[in-house]
């Protein structure tokens, strides 16, 4: 199965994709919009996208793309994020002057940069891409921040391991497929939904009360602005479910209170 990811081989998305589909073939895309376009055009059969980080929060763009594309979430996984300072073989940490990586990765390593004031943090489009660039430049004064897998994939050296500020750093990833080809796991115990409510007092409370009355446990709620409609919002929720019937009832219960309801997927909650 060809799986689209944003970023280069060796990235955290690549690592997550291998957890979700060990025999998958990676299709690297420069942008998240390209990832969804690859699935839509059948260049890839599925995509793996980060949806939420335990420290940085939700990936807002991916919520928007899930809403606007005809795809379904079929699986999720959690990945422990370990950031490493990576350089050329034989280079010492003291030689490094510029460090490239994704802005989120740089932000999660602030204490390291405080301890190494000579190093300049330089935003880059991808963690693994920063290591790929490093190997092309062959500059001893340049390093990247990425996973151990990226260092191994590109033949670079880990100069400092585990440089993230907080070890409780996890990212949740979704495996998504075209809606027409998505097969729901019979052991699915979680559902992701998006909905909008009428612009009147109490409409959101009424919608959420319907879920509460069913005994459905809502584990996440996120709001996103509606493009082109200032001060109107789309809500994204995750709920634990005990059966397919409960999931169907939850969707039906929301409809009378909502202007729009879209089921994003039913899947098994990540246990790791």
Written account of the structure:
The chain is of the alpha/beta class and 272 residues long. It has three domains: 2-81 and 169-181, Periplasmic binding protein-like II (D-Maltodextrin-Binding Protein, domain 2), CATH 3.40.190; 84-160, D-Maltodextrin-Binding Protein, domain 2 (3-Layer(aba) Sandwich), CATH 3.40.190.10; 190-267, Alpha-Beta Plaits (2-Layer Sandwich). Helices cover 29% and strands 35% of the residues. It is built from nine helices and 15 strands. The protein has helices spanning 12-20, 32-40, 60-68, 103-107, 110-115, 127-137, 148-154, 203-213, 244-254; strands spanning 2-6, 25-29, 46-53, 57-58, 71-80, 84-87, 98-101, 120-123, 142-146, 157-160, 170-178, 190-197, 217-225, 233-240, 258-267. The strands form three sheets. Strands 1, 2, 3, 4, 5 and 11 form a six-stranded mixed beta sheet that branches. It has a five-stranded mixed beta sheet with strand order 8-7-9-6-10. Strand 13 and strand 14 form a beta hairpin. The chain is elongated. The two termini are 23 Å apart.
């Amino acid at each position: 199965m060809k799986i689209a990811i944003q970023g280069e081989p060796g990235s955290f998305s690549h690592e997550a994709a291998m957890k979700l589909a060990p025999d998958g073939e990676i299709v690297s895309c420069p942008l998240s919009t390209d990832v969804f376009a690859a699935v839509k055009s059948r260049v890839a059969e599925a995509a793996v996208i980060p949806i939420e980080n335990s420290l940085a929060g939700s990936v807002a763009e991916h919520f928007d793309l899930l809403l606007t594309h005809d795809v379904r979430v079929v699986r999720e996984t959690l990945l422990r994020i370990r950031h490493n300072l990576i350089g050329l073989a034989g280079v010492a940490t003291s030689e490094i002057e510029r460090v490239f990586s994704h802005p989120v990765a740089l932000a999660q390593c602030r204490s390291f940069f405080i301890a190494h004031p000579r190093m300049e943090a330089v935003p880059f489009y991808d963690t693994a891409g920063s290591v790929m660039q490093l190997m092309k430049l062959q500059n001893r004064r340049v390093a990247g921040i990425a996973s151990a897998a990226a260092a191994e994939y590109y033949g670079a050296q880990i100069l400092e391991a585990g440089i993230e500020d907080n070890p409780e750093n996890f990212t949740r990833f979704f495996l998504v497929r075209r809606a027409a080809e998505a097969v729901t796991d019979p052991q699915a115990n979680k559902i992701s939904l998006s909905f909008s409510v009428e612009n009147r007092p109490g409409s959101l409370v009424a919608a959420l009360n319907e879920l509460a009355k069913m005994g459905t446990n809502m584990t996440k709620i996120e709001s996103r602005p509606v493009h082109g409609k200032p001060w109107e919002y789309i809500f994204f929720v995750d709920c634990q479910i005990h059966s397919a019937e409960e999931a169907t009832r939850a969707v039906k219960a929301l409809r009378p209170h909502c202007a729009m309801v879209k089921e994003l997927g039913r899947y098994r909650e990540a246990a790791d």
